[in-house]
User: Which sequence fits this backbone?
């Protein structure tokens, strides 16, 4: 049996499971024999992926069509898993736009907060509280971004929301350790997802080499319970080291600004 199933049981809840990195987690966990509760607002791609997984992996998949930015999303998900011994939570859902901060509407800004942070805080609170009450160990894996470590322009609310998740995981890791609950956050770089393809101009896509979503998912799963904060891919770890450790912050920010404006300006 895979070590993840030995530690976290047979069921996993994936919030934001229909496409991209979330779909990568679905495939990676299904290959390990997990039963999966998929949650997403995108009904058609989620159902198509669920059918594919059940056909090819012979595992049980349940789908929940839900707007994860809604005020009651976390409570709804806790009700969905109440009948299952679900001890692995993966939060991938995120709102992401590339544009100047002042071009965001109030609705955009609320969505960053509600989906990227508010829902995840409430879901972690409910999920970990349930595990503690049942006296069972479990795992919680959050997806952040290099933007949360670097703070590039044109993605300010997204970068801030991802930085929040990094600090949240770091703080909770010490609190949850005595409870037998592992919490990790993985920072992804450029990843070949529908959102990346939608936001990134064609010339930049041709030049850059984004990671495959399943590779990001596999890496993040390997770090769960081992590293609190991890960075997917050596092509991401090296430039981050240069920008965050070798160069003054002011110079790093100028480099990031030039790069982002060249790609998206």
Assistant:
């Amino acid at each position: 049996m895979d070590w993840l199933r030995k530690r976290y049981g047979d069921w996993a809840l994936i919030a934001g499971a229909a496409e991209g990195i979330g779909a990568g987690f679905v495939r990676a966990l299904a290959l390990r024999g997990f039963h999966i509760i998929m949650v997403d607002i995108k009904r058609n791609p989620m159902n198509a992926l669920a059918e594919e997984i059940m056909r090819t992996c012979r595992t049980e998949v349940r789908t929940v069509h839900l707007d994860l930015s809604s005020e009651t999303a976390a409570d709804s998900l806790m009700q969905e898993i109440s009948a299952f011994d679900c001890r692995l939570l993966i939060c991938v859902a995120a709102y992401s736009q590339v544009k100047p901060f002042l071009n965001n509407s109030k609705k955009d800004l609320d969505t960053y907060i509600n989906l990227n942070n508010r829902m995840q805080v409430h879901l972690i609170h409910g999920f970990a509280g349930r595990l503690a009450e049942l006296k069972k160990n479990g795992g919680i894996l959050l997806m952040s971004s290099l933007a949360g470590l670097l703070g590039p322009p044109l993605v300010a609310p997204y970068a801030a929301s991802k930085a929040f998740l990094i600090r949240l995981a770091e703080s909770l890791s010490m609190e949850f350790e005595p409870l037998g609950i592992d919490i990790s956050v993985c920072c992804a770089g450029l990843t070949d997802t529908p959102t990346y393809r939608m936001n990134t101009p064609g010339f930049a896509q041709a030049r850059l080499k984004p990671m495959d979503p399943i590779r990001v998912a596999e890496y993040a799963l390997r770090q769960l319970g081992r590293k609190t904060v991890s960075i997917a891919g050596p092509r991401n770890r090296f430039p981050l080291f240069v920008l965050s450790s070798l160069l003054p912050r002011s110079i790093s920010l100028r480099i990031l600004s030039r790069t982002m404006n060249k790609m998206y300006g």
